[in-house]
Design brief:
The complex is a heterodimer. Chain A is of the alpha/beta class. Chain A has helices spanning about 35-45, 65-70, 95-105, 120-135, 150-170, 180-185, and strands at about 5-10, 15-20, 25-30, 50-55, 60, 75, 140-145, 170-175, 190, 200. In chain B, α3 (about 65-85) packs parallel to α5, α4 (about 90-120) runs antiparallel to α5 and α5 packs across α7. The chains are: A alpha/beta, B mainly alpha.
Chain lengths: ~200, ~270
């Protein structure tokens, strides 16, 4: 159940990639910059042209609308973009628990009225994670979710992701350049080489 | 009342003014001198040619010839729309998108007005059909070019914002809705402005021409109003159609933003 299964995925110079991520499992990617880690995640959510078979929870992505697929398999991009002026306009109706996530990441309710342009890079990164989680994805692809954060915020972000994953039984792919974080989080680690091949690292 | 005929000398005097302008701009190093002269020569040659074509056409009003001229006018307008875009669609789309929407809106409206409003017999009488279509196409072309340019540049510049919405599982339509709205708005603005300013700031060219040609002012005004409405409707529908089709073609069947379908234009 809730397994993210990738077979023979190819995109640009990347692949073929074969990978299974089970519910609640954390798989981490690292590798030289420019190897195409972000491209690989975009190919999985079918945001860029690619070939291969990807399915989630036994359902192949071709069998549903692309928008439906992306609602299930959520991608947190390394750089967050905001299409409205106010932070709150990017969120659906929020429930109690979701508001609690805001306070766990150091925001109060006021943040929804903030102007996006006035937020710092770190604030935007945390808000971008909240935005993704509030849309309720069932699998998480995270592109350096803590890259611009200090130690405390990194811990908070990891905690929120972990509780979300535990509750929703999400498979997780996590791109990180921090070996300590990788050791702390992931059960399997892969390196995406310059030639586009995914190499498994010994634990 | 008859038109006072213009002699070659009369036109030469007017041409001297343009040459003076070109020389002045060369002296000021605006880098426009050559372009002014070339544009002026193009105007002269193109208009003389069309004058001869129209003269022949008016002498024998065959629907086939009218249609042929109409198609040539449309093809050139389609090319102009494509050439004015910074990022345009590659392949047939680059040319076909603007041409198709102009064809549908300009031709339908022109034929409709000829048959149902002006009621000229036969409806393809070139004295009516060609100038009407020409004015329609000239204005529609501007509207469509502006709309498409804004659409493709908008998608190019805001690709991050569009993809961010797609990533969250939004459909392509809401993800590009703002850009679509803005594109149609930009395409319609010149036409709305010219309707609002007509008669006060500017005396429209066609009306002025008719008055110079000896028509009673009220008749000229009525025709001008008719033309303005035709242009408004034609430009509006064509801009909307082209923007909608273009926006659709920016995404593929998996709702991916396909900027690789655009290529860099000349300007």
């Amino acid at each position: 159940m809730n397994t993210l299964s990738i077979q023979q995925l190819r995109c640009h110079h990347i692949g073929p990639i074969d990978l299974n991520v089970a519910a609640g499992q954390y798989v981490s990617f690292s590798g030289p910059s420019g190897a195409g880690k972000s491209i690989l995640l975009k190919a999985i959510i079918d945001l860029i042209p690619n070939s291969g078979e990807v399915s989630f929870n036994g359902q192949r992505r071709e069998h549903m609308r692309a928008s439906q697929w992306r609602q299930q398999v959520g991608l947190l991009p390394a750089e967050s973009f905001w299409w409205c002026n106010q932070v709150g306009d990017h969120f659906p109706e929020l429930n109690e628990q979701q508001l609690k996530w805001f306070s766990q990441l150091g925001f109060d309710k006021q943040v929804l009225g903030w102007d996006v342009l006035r937020c710092s890079t770190g604030e935007r990164q945390r808000l971008s994670l909240l935005r993704l989680l509030c849309h309720g994805p069932k699998a998480l692809l995270l592109d350096e979710p803590t890259a611009n954060l200090d130690k405390t915020n990194t811990e908070n972000v990891e905690q929120i992701i972990q509780s979300y994953v535990q509750e929703q039984h999400c498979p997780v792919i996590w791109i990180s350049h921090d070996p300590i974080q990788i050791k702390r989080i992931a059960s399997q680690h892969y390196i995406l080489e310059q030639d586009g091949q995914l190499q498994k690292e010994a634990a | 009342m008859n038109v006072i005929p213009l002699s070659v000398t009369d036109l030469a005097v007017a041409a001297a003014l343009v040459v003076l302008l070109a020389m002045l701009s060369m002296a000021m190093q605006l880098g426009l001198g050559k372009r002014i002269i070339i544009a002026a020569i193009r105007t002269t040659v193109q208009l003389l040619l069309i004058g001869m074509v129209l003269k022949t056409l008016f002498d024998r009003a065959h629907p086939g010839w009218v249609l042929l001229l109409a198609i040539i006018m449309l093809s050139v307008a389609g090319y102009e729309v494509m050439a004015r875009q910074k990022h345009r669609f590659g392949g047939w789309w680059g040319y076909g998108l603007g041409t198709l929407s102009m064809f549908i809106s300009s031709f339908t409206i022109a034929v409709f007005v000829l048959i149902a409003v002006i009621n000229v017999e036969p409806w393809y009488t070139p004295q009516y059909a060609i100038p009407l279509l020409g004015m329609m196409l000239g204005n529609t072309m501007t509207g469509v070019a502006l709309s498409l340019d804004r659409l493709t540049s908008g998608a190019y510049e805001k690709r991050g914002l569009i993809e961010a919405q797609l990533m969250l599982g939004y459909e392509w339509r809401p993800a590009i809705a703002d850009i679509v709205r803005e594109s149609v708005r930009v395409g319609l603005m010149p036409m709305i402005n010219s309707m609002a300013a007509a008669g006060i700031v500017s005396l429209p060219g066609m009306m002025t021409g008719q008055i110079l040609g000896g028509s009673p002012p009220m008749e000229a005004v009525k025709y001008q109003i008719l033309i303005m409405f035709m242009i408004a409707a034609g430009t509006g529908f064509a801009s909307m159609g082209a923007t909608w089709l273009g926006a659709r073609h920016l995404f593929d069947e998996r709702q991916r933003l396909r900027l690789d379908r655009l290529k860099e234009g000349r300007t």
